[in-house]
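Researcher: Going back to the complex we discussed earlier. I've cleaned up the inputs and rechecked each line, so this should be the final set. Can you rerun the prediction on the complete assembly and write out the structure?
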Amino acid sequence: MNPVRSSRSSRSAPLARFSAPALVLLLLLALALPPAVTGCGGGEPTAAGDVTFTYWSIFPVGDPAESVHNTMMRTFEDQNPGVTVEHVGTSFWDYWTKLQTAQAGNQGPDLFIQDICNVKGRAKDGVSANLEAYLKADKIRKDDYLASDIESCTWNDELYAMPFSTDARYLFWNKAHFEAAGLDPETPPKTLAELESFADQLTKYSEDGKTLEQVGFHPRLGNNIFVQMVWSQGGEFFDQDMNPTINTDKNIEVIEWWVRMVNKYPVRAFNAFSTQASAAAVSPFIQGKVSLLIDNNELAWKIKDLAPDLRFGVTAVPYDGEENRTAWSGGFTLEISAAADKAKQDAAWKFIRYMTGPEVQSNLTETLRWLPCLVDSLDALKEGADANELAIIEESKYRRHFDYVEASPQWWGYVDPQISKLEQGELTSARKAMDLAQAELLRQIENYRKTSGQE
Amino acid sequence: MRWTDRMTMRRKEALAGVLFALPWILGFLVFTLYPIASSFYYSFTRYNMRSAPLWIGLANYETIFTTDSLFVPGVLNTLYFVAFSVPLNLAASLLIAVLLNNRTFGIRFYRTLFYLPNVVSIVAVALLWQWILDPTFGLINQALALLGVEGPGWLTDAAWSKPSLILMGLWGVGGTVVIFLASLQDVPASLYDAALIDGAGPVRKFRHITLPMISPAIFFNLVMGIIGAFQVFTQAFIMTGGGPSDSTMFYALVIYRKAFWDIQMGYASALAWILLVMILAVTLVVLKLGNRFVFYGDTQS
Amino acid sequence: MSRSFLSSPSPAGAALPAAPTLPPARGRARVRRVAYQVLVQALLLSFSALFLFPFLWMLSTALKTPQEMFAAVMRLIPRDPQWGNFIRVFSAIPFLRYTLNTAIITFGTMAGVLLSSSLVAYSFARLRWPGRNLLFVVLLSTLMLPGQVILIPTFILFSNLGWLDSFAPLVVPAFFGGGAFNIFLLRQFYRTIPFDLTESARIDGCREIHIYARIILPLCKPILATIALFTFMGCWNDFFGPLIFLTNPDLTTLALGLRAFQQQHTAQWDLMMAGALISALPTLVLFFSFQRYFVEGITLTGIKG
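Model: Rerun complete. Updated structure for the full complex:
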């Protein structure tokens, strides 16, 4: 006898009563599913030659920038009859997981926004399409973009991504603080030594000496990383062949400076200071609590919004020699899926050309508050710009992205804990710390080689 | 009863057993087996989620056990977390559940309250805790200061970061409390009546009636607590990112790093399978011990 | 011995006759009872502050102006409460549409979980069949792999089934087992029910499905309510499943949709908190009403002794 079948007999009234609400729910579900399933088809009849391509970005519904981004897409569609952009926006914090998973399952979009720092990996693995033929056909000159951007988008001498937007790091200084400390408000520090001595003069404690009221300069505040400081002093983390050179004398010297700067502030006082600053969710520079800060151009726009009366200056992160002038930078690219149909790729390329062309690029700062990658558009911003804006434009041309290391795409994450140990006093010698970091990175690379299947 | 009857009953019971379990068996075969088997396969490959997995045999496992620098700290940090957070959570949630099982003024309100942290958005939780645990302005250290004690840098001091995360976890005991509460409702009143006649006090009643009667729920919360604690991730990911000095670098965080920092899904899968074996071993021991200490109403096993 | 001793602290107090039928409490017992009540209230009150605080803080953030949120000193009570944020959130994102989508997924999953897990757990708890114990360990071990490493194969699976961009990957699996956590939880409760109770019914020729539906299920209301609550909350707040399996913006759920208020460098904290609070309401209402099951307990306790 089959107990399950017997349950379906009409005699079992109690059971029927028990499951009535469940059955209603089931029916609801059954009703709800079909539209959801068919909803994805989107199969409206289209004229021959019309193309629809899918495009994923970091602008979801509800993001303040979404409407601007939509306007860009609609304008493009108006200019290119027959081409439709099917856009999906996902919050920046979730976007990368969604994109990566979808692409691993061959369900990725035809066109997508990506991170300029790791284009090479996607090029090598055949995720992103080679754009050289399009560049040639449309006579797009790579020289119209910054060499460092193009380099990051290039693999085996060919381009796999178009730089779309970027940022850069600068030294911000509070002029009122400078005046109060008897420093010339128009002369920011130019060297690490100057930065240190200015910071000492600008730092203020409460009367009992327990509370930090004003921080001169702290390398961990703002949007800064040790890599920026090292680069500006001529240090490098990798040689020509991408072998790690973490523990060179130059690097160690800068890390020593970094740790000295951190340790100037009593741990408790600084922790209290920084928590209070971050709890307020706005830069301590805007609150007028930090005199010198390394941050990206975003901070300048925020000052405009939140503290228009703040008197501040923007300049390069102190560098040692013109050849080391560097602004650490990130950025977004537009890339075409190598797996997409030719027709969709062609249409997606038209959209890339529009998004990386003068029309969109010239307005990028105004609309999305990003710096444009097209150099002419960047220079066009100089018109009517004040001194700070000029500095932002000029310095951004010295930008540089993280080195791409296949074995460890986020290599700095393996160096930073050693620096933290120095700051915490768990290690006392910067050389020892950097030796450890070097060994760790070599181990990562060696482990990567050992698991490559090519032994 | 004749033994043939008993045989038919046995067979009927076995048939019913399989049929009742069939939804899960089917679901396992269709929805679970493939992903699990795939990850097992990945663990013997190099897989960067972009090109097809490449078979490399035991190289991932070999590397993990010989030259991986985060494997051992990851295991130790995780064991520490499991050892302290599981018993602490159990004790706290049992205490709260017993309190909430009283008939007292405003009990419906209290019961809802204890579940509140579970419905608050995780981002809000993280922000809030950063503030609560702040060395100077944090609620905890300000309270300690009133007592004349200088509180530590909870999340910034490598010696205190793990205890801080364990304490934070206490705040989300609402789910466990609800299970205990449901279990306490199942204790037959007649047993307490009998105890009363024997003149048992509250402590003895709790030890000799309540505890054994809810032991299946304790056992459940223990096993799920262990499985969950071994995979501790979110708090550390949001609050400390593994630091300071890798003191909160829990095993799941190591897996995450390998998968999404280093884009080595094959290696991450190997790490995950080692974790599975560790959890399974501990769970099996607990299951074995559980049979001795857990009091079930049925007499069959 | 007086029964009054038992009237308040007993877990089964609810099932006992109400106070008036009790004999008058004697002096010492009453003092003890009052002392116990005071202790309980004191403990509950002090814990409460801890548990209520984050919720109040969320409410306070939802009501703050951006300027106040950026103020250096944190205040719990906003100076100028922005109740309008709770309305603004409805126009900033298609809140109602998201709510509908979330509700469909949640109730579908709840139906699946309750039906399926209660059946399967019955088998694991009260029926003897070859391979049961081994499969139970397999069931438990499905909980032991971190989601990160099965994410991609799961995605590929649903992609091959053609279920992407529908609610199917989020709902249908619930009907096939209802989750190892729930099965295990129910199994533990089923097993506390005396075996004699069902054995006699079985000898009387009662079918297994009837034993399950008529004897076991009615005894397990508190735990079924618990599972319903957990499932509701899990689904309602899950943003990861919808993030991975749903791409069509029309299918977006609340938890996923609210993430739009957080951008790379900024966030609309006020809207995010307001949205999160509104979306938490159904769970709270559900919890508050499901308490009936926890309070009432098992009225049939008499048959269990």
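Model: Worth noting: Residues 169-319 of chain A form a domain with the D-Maltodextrin-Binding Protein; domain 2 fold (CATH 3.40.190.10).
Researcher: Good, that matches what I expected from the previous run.
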